[in-house]
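hiii so my PI (J.) wants the whole complex modelled not just the main chain, which honestly fair. so below is everything: two entries, each one labled with what it is. i double checked the lines twice but i was tired so who knows lol
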Amino acid sequence: MAKIIYVEHNGTEHEVQIPNGQSLMDGAVARMVPGIEGDCGGLCACATCHIYVPEEWESRCGVPEELEQNILDFAFDVQPNSRLSCQIKVSETLDGIRVLMPERQY
Amino acid sequence: MSFIESKAVQLLNDLPEALLITTVTGKIVFFNHSAAIQSGFTDEEMIGDHVSRLLPQSHRRKVDVITWFGRWADNPDPEQLRYLTLDGVRKSGEPRRYQVRVSRSKEQGEIYFVIVLRDVTEEQEQTAALRHSQLIANRIIAIGEDAVLSIDQDSNICFWNQKAEQLFGYTEKEAMGANVNMLLPEHTRDVHTKSIQTFGSGKAPSRFMGERGEITGLHKSGKIIPLEASITKTYVGDSLILSAQVRDISQRRKIEADLAEREARFGAVFNHAVEAIALLDNEGRVLEINEAAREMLPLDEPVINLPLWQLPWWRQSNASNQAESREKLRSNCQQAMLGDTVHTRTSFDAGTHLLDLDFSLTPVSDSNNQVLYLIAEARKLVGS
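here's the output for the full assembly
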């Protein structure tokens, strides 16, 4: 279980507890956090669960695979710290992470 | 062009799907009829032009569509039939959403991309609207004060919100799929099963809190919880889903019990006081009288809501005396209503003789010095 803080583009913060092993996308959808769509259900086939990971947490989120990097090309307003939240699995090492959401997913 | 070839071109042109073919650099070499209808561009306009003309120019997306077509064509994923979803733009400038599938074709040493486009703008808008309304409904359920849960036709839990988690002590993971009996004390399970069967097969779509009595729930810890529930039914296909909004009323029960206890204590003091006491509203009308006051009254005469000065206490044999004493009392009440404590002596017709009374009116004010009540107290003077 880890505490995850999702920050909407407008600054609204959603603090939720997510069980280990769930992806940041699944956790957000299950807890009804707005701003993360997850259209493809976590197959890494859309870019609608796009988030920004703060620099200090990047290493703990793992290195994105090529497919994720490719799909990220389709996301809106991609930054160097952009990730797809369906590809980040929750574990205790992410406890307290604040991830930021883009202005829109489409 | 052979007959077969020209037939094939005709066929591609008539295809109900929008289809275009580009070179590896993205130059359009074929643009069928459906593609023209969908995009608003004619084939004359598009053939020879670059495929990116169908995409909006956005500096906020970095996708290089030709690189992507190459990647996607290399990995066509036929089992899943995955479509890429891209932002597109019509000739009019109107933004659209396209689903795209790409394959690579080699013809006389030249490589081409064969691209099928589906305009999914409306579909996506509808899905987004539905998703947003679901999000709103779900978030309302999530912040609601009541636990919300649903059960399927086998009485297994298939929806469980956070308040349900707090109320019954089971996490969503523990509750989902479990039988609803887990939430009920053993002796109530059969009755509950019958009652949900009756409701399920009955005509009413919903039953509201208060329509049926209190029910009892069982917390994970074994604690019994008094509950109230509203229930509604929905068919998903052929299967019946029952959803309930459940409210813990133990706090309300406790408040009611505390209130009753306080009222009993107040009643004990009020009714067993030696002095006659009446509680009046701020216009002098009787709200309550105690036992001692009631004993001074003729039997069964109604007093509640009557102005104090009109009570039968002040009935006197002499009509002018009576009017005079009532008028005096009324003016005493008015003085007390302004906030003054009034202390006086009066006499009371006890039938056979007059009783002399020590009489007081005490105003009770709120924090704004607004008089809410008057307390009238009367005590027999010793020797009278």
